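Worked Example 4.2. Consider the chain below.
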Amino acid sequence: MTEPLLELGDYSIDLGGRPILRGLAFALARGERVALVGPNGAGKSTLLKCLTRILPGARGRATLAGRPLADYRQDELARRVAYVPQAAGVSIPYTVEEFLFMGRYPHLGPFAAAGERDRGAVERALRDTGTAVLAERYLDTLSGGERQKVFLAAALAQETELLLLDEHTAFLDPAHQVEIQRLLGRVHDERGTTLLAATHDLNGALAHFNRVLALREGEIRFDGPASKLADPAVLRDVFRHDFVILRHPTADRAVVLPE
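Applying the procedure from the previous section yields the following structure tokens:
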């Protein structure tokens, strides 16, 4: 059996004296595309921040490529895992190109200048995300859609095998949502990157991901193929709300609508 890229067992964290994640247990295989869904406060963003150690203090077993997550130095972890936060409202006083070069820090020694490989990684990320035309622009002059693509480009410049995304289509209009989803599909297909994406977009999860993990109150309530999420009983259990299940008029998949 192939060793999973990421594996959690009895994984929990309390914040402010309140349990946020409760005994999570799951594994991600290399190359999977997994959507993380659930109502507000379910623990989705918390999980991603724990996996990148933005939030310390998690308990339980967590291994990355067979090695305990706690044993990684931060620069080692950043060579394997990249995190794409929500870009809305973030003000960063750098140009797009400067921001992408900052994503190369895990691969550089102290005070080392960027080399040919670093420049190549930045150029490839700009090209793959269609952001080369923005390279000299400052981040705070970009639209929400442009900024989200730049945040993704910075993560790609890290050249990691696991990409964690926190509401990567939030605050975007439908056209930009589709553009970002298609971009992630290309990244997955061309680079073999493993994706774990927290999202409130249930139909996006059904359309663009192979597997869904659903959280409620910090616990896993569903873990299975994306198509199996489109079940009224499953959705009711996760969201405590009723949904209507329809068929997409042109694609062979379900569409879910809240009652």
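The longest strand covers residues 18-28. The first helix runs from residue 44 to 51. Compare this with Example 4.1 before moving on.
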